[in-house]
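User: Can you predict the 3D structure for this chain?
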Amino acid sequence: MGQQSLIYSFVARGSTVLAEYTSFSGNFSTIAVQCLQKLPANNSKFTYACDGHTFNFLVEEGFAYLVVADEKVGRQLPFSLLERIKEDFQRRYGAGGGKADAVPAHSLNKDFGYGDMFNVAYSLDKDFGLRLRDHMQYCIDHPEELNKVAKIKSQVSEVKGIMMENIEKVLDRGEKIELLVDKTENLRFQ
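Assistant: Here is the predicted structure, written as structure tokens:
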């Protein structure tokens, strides 16, 4: 996979970009912020295509995560990267500290009372911008691992579905067996 496959990434709250990283020049950040303005507030994934690039957004719990990728990369790698970024961001600023986790999912534009930490543009750039770089480089260097993880997650989800069906069938059988036992008891006493 080429060095230019993953081009730009950021983490934002509302329309405020908290941290970004790119090693390329271009208008990626301008287009990304324009797209950010149009995102719905609910938890979702979006991809916008522009000039041979995809702008891939993961919106979750009041935060938007973005990666700009070459169109040839597809969608799986960018969204795997976004999941990594989201998990790292929540680990650092959310789960445990409660700052990222506690943001309601209803709106990206409301002031949630986190003071300057999540209100000042690029306030986390020095700290988390380097993490964005590291995640992007890891995904460029190890795309096969991300595909394996996605495949394993899919298989686990499939197995979980099958197990749920099996449990339902066992419960149904248990009820049918109880009915049969009741009927045989009734027949025996007649």
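The chain is about 50% helix and 20% strand. The CA atoms of residues 148 and 172 lie 36 Å apart.
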